[in-house]
Amino acid sequence: MVKHSSNVKGYSGLLGSLKKIDIEITRNFKKSAPMEIYAFEPFAVLFDEFIKKYDELRMYEIACELLKSLDEFEKKYGRTSELLKIQSVFEKFKKNYELLREIKKSNAELKKTYDTTIEGWGKALELRDSETEGHSHGVMDFAVKLAKEMGLNDEEIQIISRGALLHDIGKIGIPNAILLKQDALTEDEQKIMNQHPTFGYEMLKEISYLQPAAAAVYSHHERWDGKGYPQSLKGEKIPLSARIVAVANHWDAHLHDRPNQKAWTREKVIKDLQEKSGKMFDPEIVKVFLGKVIDNEG
Ligand SMILES: [Fe+2]
Ligand SMILES: [Fe+2]
Fold first, then answer.
1. Higher pLDDT, residue 253 or 72
2. What number is the average pLDDT over the span 18-23?
3. Which residue among 80, 152, 212, 275 is the one 20 to 30 A from 239 at the CA level?
């Protein structure tokens, strides 16, 4: 039997349509064709199912199935004005969901294009600085694991993932003589090198879909104690995404050979992170990283 939608909560836009359908069924079929309504048993079951599950694709399928049921009903009992009304409600419903499905598909394609573009930039940096090849992806992997362990939502994880992948993108603006120098940098050279977060931020800030990620790029060399760069931000004034990327960056950078520094052992990096917790890094993030991310890595 047709169940009323009084058990449905939320989903205001959709609820409007459901209510309308429910009213139509009640008003037209129950009044004018009390016996024939039993022919709509599958209709009622499906209707009830999509209320409970609220899955877009399933709802689209259900709308199609309902329309098929209505066709059967029409063949059996003829075309009635009540039937036409119900059909038009479900036709609209079906069209809306076809449209929604198209939009979802376009969004997915757009997201893929964005991600491919970002990957391309990452590759461009690695071509210039082959010794740090894999570093951007390494930082991204650890930052995402960390963000997940910290219970961040999908949207926040995506921002952190992009920020991590692009954190050093500003190095594209650093001259080779400094970027690839094997010896320690002079004070002046270090000053130029330290501009890479600003260069990266300048590169990304006008690109709307990358604006949220730009914060992690700009602030990944800030320090918890306020002694970092470029803005000398302190504690929670540093965006969370940047604090996460900072820990992941430190981990990945020290585990691999770099132009002017040999790789450290895993134990040495762990000890270093412990020592710098609360000074260079957010202590809570270091705790989660060492306790859960590294633990899970085995
Ligand atoms: Fe950096
Ligand atoms: Fe880095």
1. 253
2. 54
3. 275
